[in-house]
Automatic annotation (TrEMBL):
Keywords linked to the UniProt accession: Signal
PROSITE patterns noted in UniProt: SBP_BACTERIAL_3
Coiled coil: none
Bilayer-crossing regions: none
Protein's UniProt name: Amino acid ABC transporter
Lineage: Bacteria, Pseudomonadati, Pseudomonadota, Alphaproteobacteria, Hyphomicrobiales
Predominant location: periplasm
Domain Solute-binding protein family 3/N-terminal: 56-286
């Protein structure tokens, strides 16, 4: 089985840009407040299982999926998932028993199966095959699809309906191409072979808008590469059919108590705002 990421990211250039942004994240987060949709019912209270017999909790991640997990300029393991793992341990009052280890992404599944770790937090896409072998926490983040528009193009409206008579670019053969066709059949889709070709065409006004992964688009419109040509437009758009179940934590099937404990922690962090704080730390311009 080939493991896959939840989102298909082109990391060349994005990683360097992401590191450059980290120094300005705190200031940016104070200027804007992009909201993180709650994935847990605010009225829901999940019981916290007894973890007194737990010897340790070993989170496994990787270092090639910024801004979720990467090695920073000081060689320190960092990222959204890394900070979230630490917050989960803090909420469960087991920080002294927690470890976070980075290994190659391709080795995560086998390492968990061999009990070389207890939980994988690395943007691993949930598949039926993985569900036959492992269990997953409740999702803590969804990666939506978004439109991005060229600001030089006049649009008659502020919703996707305004794009009906405009050429909209999409990367060929992706879930976003299929999702665009299913959600917006009236839009004139123009396919490109790569994300870079798509964004270049948008910047040069060869298309008036594009439809793609919100994570990539959010960083691109805020980067020097876009030259302030464009902005996110309408949305976000979520679809489990096209985009999957969202960001989750994978555990062994026998660890039902630990899974329930992690669900409790995620629900609490969502309700008390600490999940939102981590989100703003790494996504100051917002995905939604």
């Amino acid at each position: 089985m080939t493991q896959s990421r939840l989102a298909s990211l082109t990391l060349q250039g994005f990683f360097a840009f992401g590191l450059a942004l980290l120094s300005s994240f705190a200031a940016s987060a104070q200027q804007v407040s992009p909201s993180l949709p709650l994935l847990f019912d605010a009225r829901e209270r999940l019981a916290r299982p007894d973890l007194s017999s737990l010897v340790r909790l070993r989170f496994l991640t990787s270092v090639d999926f910024p801004p979720f997990n990467f090695t920073d300029q000081n060689g320190k393991l960092s990222g959204f998932d890394v900070d979230l793992a630490r917050e989960i341990c803090s909420e469960l009052e087991i920080s002294d028993k927690c470890q976070i280890q980075a290994i190659p992404f391709a080795d995560l599944k086998d390492a968990l199966a061999a009990s070389q770790g207890d939980a994988v937090i690395a943007g691993l896409a949930v598949t039926p095959e993985l569900r036959r072998q492992f269990v997953f926490s409740r999702p803590y983040l969804m990666l939506p699809a978004r439109f991005v528009r060229n600001l030089a193009v006049p649009l008659d409206g502020k919703t996707a309906a305004a794009l009906a008579k405009h050429p909209v670019g999409v990367v060929r053969g992706t879930v976003h191409e299929a999702m665009l066709a299913a959600f917006f059949p009236a839009i004139q889709a123009q396919a490109f072979d790569t994300k870079d070709a798509l964004l270049a065409a948008l910047k040069e006004r060869k298309v008036d808008a594009a439809f793609a992964d919100a994570l990539q688009l959010s960083f691109w419109v805020s980067s020097p590469a876009s030259a302030k040509c464009c902005a996110l437009f309408d949305g976000p758009y979520l679809s489990e059919q096209f985009l999957g179940e969202g960001m989750t934590i994978m555990l062994r099937q026998k660890d039902s108590v630990l899974t329930a404990a992690i669900d409790h922690a995620l629900a609490t962090l969502s309700r008390n705002g600490r999940l939102q704080e981590i989100y703003l730390r790494y996504f100051p311009y917002g995905l939604y």
